[in-house]
Write a structure and sequence with these properties.
The chain has three helices and 13 strands. By secondary structure, it is mostly beta strands. It has a single domain, classed as Alpha-ketoglutarate-dependent dioxygenase AlkB-like (Jelly Rolls).
Length: about 180
């Protein structure tokens, strides 16, 4: 485990070999069957395509015969980052042109004090984590296939993160982000 940032709630921690390659490969393959959707958003006074595909699931609403590996992934994540995760948001970056802009997670959609845990699958992509107070204070981490990144709730108040575009040839990458959401 590498401590990327520190705060009173655990900061930002990274496990590059959270699961073995065979498990990560199996999860990546199974998640191809997720309900991936394209989205459009308002940005700078116009509607634009979100540069990635997304899917989301309430973990307590999964059918017992769910073909997705989310229950097994959740158990592994909770063994490393104990939290009552109840939702999984997923991103599919199809190539280096897909990205997510610098942001912090939407705070009213998170339970205070609870962490966020991100499992990365597929081609490694660089995540930038930077201070909101001083953009020059940044940490870059290459999110490896089968890795886990945990971010404290407190880090969402002080830092932002994103996956920048790259011109380098890239294969697909998925992130499965476990969160504790307020009750529906």
């Amino acid at each position: 485990m590498t401590q990327l940032l520190d705060d009173a709630e655990g900061g930002v921690r990274y496990w590059p070999s959270f699961v073995d390659a065979a498990t990560a490969d199996a999860w990546f393959e199974a998640l191809q069957g997720a309900e991936w959707k394209s989205q459009r958003r308002m940005m700078y006074d116009r509607e634009v395509d979100v540069p990635r595909l997304v899917a989301s699931y309430w973990l307590d609403g999964l059918p017992p015969d769910c073909p997705l590996p989310l229950p097994g992934m959740l158990a592994r994540v909770q063994a490393q980052v104990p939290a009552p995760f109840n939702a999984a948001g997923m991103n599919l970056y199809r190539d280096g042109r897909d990205s997510v802009a610098m942001h912090h997670d939407t705070l009213h959609m998170l339970v205070p004090g609870q962490p966020i845990a991100l499992v990365s699958l597929g081609d490694a992509r660089r995540m930038r984590i930077r201070s909101q107070a001083c953009h020059r204070e940044a940490v870059d981490v290459a999110l490896a296939h089968g890795s886990l990144l945990a971010m404290s709730h407190a880090s969402q108040l002080t830092h932002e993160h994103g996956i920048p575009k790259t011109a380098r040839p890239m294969g697909p990458r998925m992130s499965v982000v476990f969160r504790v959401r307020p009750p529906r």
